[in-house]
UniProtKB/TrEMBL annotation:
<dbReference type="InterPro" id="IPR010432">
    <property type="entry name" value="RDD"/>
</dbReference>
<keyword id="KW-0812">Transmembrane</keyword>
<protein>
    <submittedName>
        <fullName>RDD family protein</fullName>
    </submittedName>
</protein>
<keyword id="KW-1133">Transmembrane helix</keyword>
<feature type="domain" description="RDD">
    <location>
        <begin position="36"/>
        <end position="162"/>
    </location>
</feature>
<keyword id="KW-0472">Membrane</keyword>
<feature type="transmembrane region" description="Helical">
    <location>
        <begin position="76"/>
        <end position="96"/>
    </location>
</feature>
<dbReference type="Pfam" id="PF06271">
    <property type="entry name" value="RDD"/>
</dbReference>
<keyword id="KW-1003">Cell membrane</keyword>
<feature type="transmembrane region" description="Helical">
    <location>
        <begin position="42"/>
        <end position="64"/>
    </location>
</feature>
<dbReference type="InterPro" id="IPR051791">
    <property type="entry name" value="Pra-immunoreactive"/>
</dbReference>
Amino acid sequence: MSEYNEHQLNPAEMPIDLNKPYNQSSETNQYRPKIAGFWIRFWAYSIDVLVVYALSGLFIKPVFRALDVSVSSPIFLFFNTYKITALLLFLVYFLLMTKFLHQTVGKMILGIKVVPKEGVKLMWSTVIFREVFGRFISKTLLFPYLLPIFMPRKEALHDLFADTYVIHENSFDKVGNISTGQKAGQLHEGAVV
């Protein structure tokens, strides 16, 4: 192992731009953040659904039962007051966690986070498009959650709406070697070699 170099920065602290490799040191290796694939995102989402379900069961359902409001009879189509309130909790959970922490509880456990394609900070407009409009459409139709399987940059519909990626926090792909001109992974933009 080489000695610690004061001029060497941690790649996790750098702005995210998956189109430009990050040169980690004065050496010739280049790295970029590793994009999170379908299965890790699926398990993170599953954990988040359990968290929201638990929050709903602990805080919302007891209030509805105390007020003697039905939690099962639909009012309009398939919706009732409880389901609408639970949906709002679901959307607010994803909105606030993503805006302030760049990750939800499920993403924290699995070590992935949401980053913007441009810049280093998620803006409110980006998070609202991603977590409210995009997630509502994805939750309603379900198939948009499968998009990361087919997209080269592993983006779901809500990522496309908001120009975001989901990346591994501390995992990087080696892009190439400057001195030799050798490049790893020339299959396509999102290929992991």
